[in-house]
Write a structure and sequence with these properties.
Layout (H helix, E strand, L loop, with lengths): L2 H8 L18 H16 L3 E4 L5 E5 L14 H4 L3 E7 L12 H16 L8 E6 L12 H7 L4 H4 L10 H7 L20 E9 L4 H5 L3 E7 L2 E9 L3 E2 L11 H19 L2 E10 L5 E2 L2 E9 L3 H22 L2 E10 L2 E2 L2 H8 L9 E4 L4 H7 L4 E6 L15 H19 L3
Parallel strand pairs: 3-4, 3-5, 5-15, 6-14
Antiparallel strand pairs: 1-2, 2-4, 6-13, 6-15, 7-11, 7-12, 8-10, 9-11
Helix pairs in contact: 1-4, 4-13, 9-10
Length: 421
Amino acid sequence: MSFEQMWRDLAPVGRSASSGGYHRQPFTAAEREAAAWFVEQCRARDLDVRTDAFGNTVAWWRPGPGGSAEGAAPGAAQAAEPGVVTGSHLDSVRDGGAYDGPLGVVSALAAVDLLRERGFTPTRPLGVSVFVDEEGSRFGLACLGSRLMTGATTLDGVKELRDRDGVYLLDAMAAAGLPVADGTEVGPGGGTAERIGCFVELHVEQGRDLVHRDAPVGVASGIWPHGRYRFDFHGQANHAGTTRMEDRRDPMVTYATTVLAANEQARLAGQRATFGRVDVHPNQTNAVPSRVTAWLDARAESRAHLEKMLADVERLAGERAGRDGTTVEVVAESVSAEVVFDPALARRIAAGHEGGDWPLLPTMAGHDAGVLSAAGVPTAMLFVRNPTGVSHAPDEHAETADCLRGVEALADTLERLAGPR
């Protein structure tokens, strides 16, 4: 099946008729439908599909006659050498774009098809993967599936996570039919002995660097460190009409001033700071709120820059709270360290393409590739040009011609990594 046909088949799943954006929240019907589509595609290619207790799936193309899984003995994956894996995720942020995640999955399947058309047979296991809950948009922890698979996060450490409706993570997993939720003891790897020896993730670029370079494909050099921080502002609920301005203890004012402070600090330092989610109590038009909870997404070129920016924002928020008669508490909900992808692997992937080497560029967005890299897996990323530069929104885009160049680049990469050495 062609890349274009797979893209058309997957495109309607979880799409909003009003905005054109996507709502594939993890462990919901739309995301599970997309996951089932992936398994169907893998089985149609005679790949050996393995899903761990958390819902992460890797479908293996094993060395052997015809290069397929046919005839492979049960449990063969456990005895195999570490494989080369490519893929991404199928969940989305709320009202997200079509390409973030699914482009890497569809391109991985298309790359397998292209390699078979070339007559290629892998000399080491080659896997196509989908990791669950990469975005963290439902339970607040990004790259949840890959963190659980690698042991970077334990089940005990996340079982109290709840979504905005109060649904616990394990309950959501149980509703999706995942075995991790049945009380069985599960260790790192989700109860599977699958081994990833190298990981390559293709992703739509979340910016316009490749547009400026006039290049359809690029290779990642690393990922900026980033974190998600919850700010709890507390004040005193009161009447919006009868309470004099000077008598108020309004946490909304403290919050609003903190948003401006974060924006200024990030601009001055050339970093990133975004308050993108807020919860207000009691959330009444005619009442001064008693509490405002807001989430800061902060990203910086180094850990030192990230820590300094956060410290500056906390200090300014505390100073403003003192003047407003309010209080503020800050909790780090998710922090990811800087990732430097294997330089030799990145250069090897970027080198020797028609028209010259693919450009190397950093990314400010988090990815499952970063989690695997931190776990010691040699890891690389390919980016496909995004003419709008928009991501996590319906205007996210990639031209079909560039997507097909991405498939070719990914197939070339996998042939180098999973072929004769």
